[in-house]
Amino acid sequence: MKLLITLLTLFYLVFPVVIASGFDHEHIEFSKILDEAVENDLVDYKTLKTNPLALNNYLKTLAEVTESEFKAWNEKQQLAYLINLYNAATLKLIADHYPITSIKNIGNVFKGPWKQTVVDLFGEKSTLDHVEHGILRKQYSEPRVHFALVCGALGCPPLREEAFTAVNLDRQLDEQGRVFLGNSKKNRVDHEATILYLSPIFDWFKEDFTRGGKSLGQWVSDYLPNERDRKAAAGTGLEIKFTSYDWALNAR
């Protein structure tokens, strides 16, 4: 009996958050949803609409997390939770309005998709805008979230076929960055014209990427696909221009 108590005590010390809350920080259910819905960066919104139970149940588990419980987690657990919440809520928002050709078709000019109160967070109804701008960008110094948050458009970074998790977060965010910066339709170096073409995301959120004192070129250089591009971007000889953003729905 003493041995059992000792082992249980050690287990509680090692896994305090999991034991206290029962929350799945591996986000296994969301990974299952993404694995079935996402293929080649495109989403099966039709199936999400006709079979909403799994996504609704996952969002319900996120909604059951209290603010005090959330604050007891470490930063990576918090970030993974918020990123997955944003992406799952976006999937539901689009599925609920499907078929549409763009997420921008939801709402109206005064209250677009990101201002809809569709996010259940800490016992209150919130918006995607609040999760992104009021929490993630405001409270965390992590510009790589822009590679992870997916707005349902072809112009945004691709939706992973797995959930973000605290234990894998750095690797996942770096992979997202390399995939996104490796897409020549959105980001590329034109050596002949001495131009660094970047997605408008780097224009819209420039302050997030340059907060540490780096230029945009220096910041993105680590994620570019080859050494020649990385060296050119890190220097001062390239003019920066922004590519067009494709708002067409990322549906398959």
Helix and strand content put the structural class at mainly alpha
Number of strands: 7
- Strand order, largest beta sheet: 5-6-7
Secondary-structure element order, N to C? HHHEEHHHHEEHHEEHHHHE
What is the approximate shape? globular
Low-confidence stretches: 1-20
Q: Portion of residues in helices? A: 40-55%
Largest sheet: 3 strands, mixed
Integer average pLDDT: 93
Q: What is the distance, rounded to the nearest whole angstrom, between the alpha carbons of the first and last residues?
A: 57 Å
Cα radius of gyration in angstroms: 20 Å
Tell me the fraction of residues in β-strands, as a range: 5-15%
Describe this structure in words.
The protein is mainly alpha-helical and 252 residues long. It is 48% helix and 8% strand. The chain is built from 13 helices and seven strands. Helix 5 runs antiparallel to helix 7 and helix 7 (75-97) runs antiparallel to helix 8. Mean pLDDT is 93; it is low at 1-20.
List key phrases describing it:
252 residues, mainly alpha, two-stranded antiparallel sheet, 13 helices, 48% helix, 8% strand
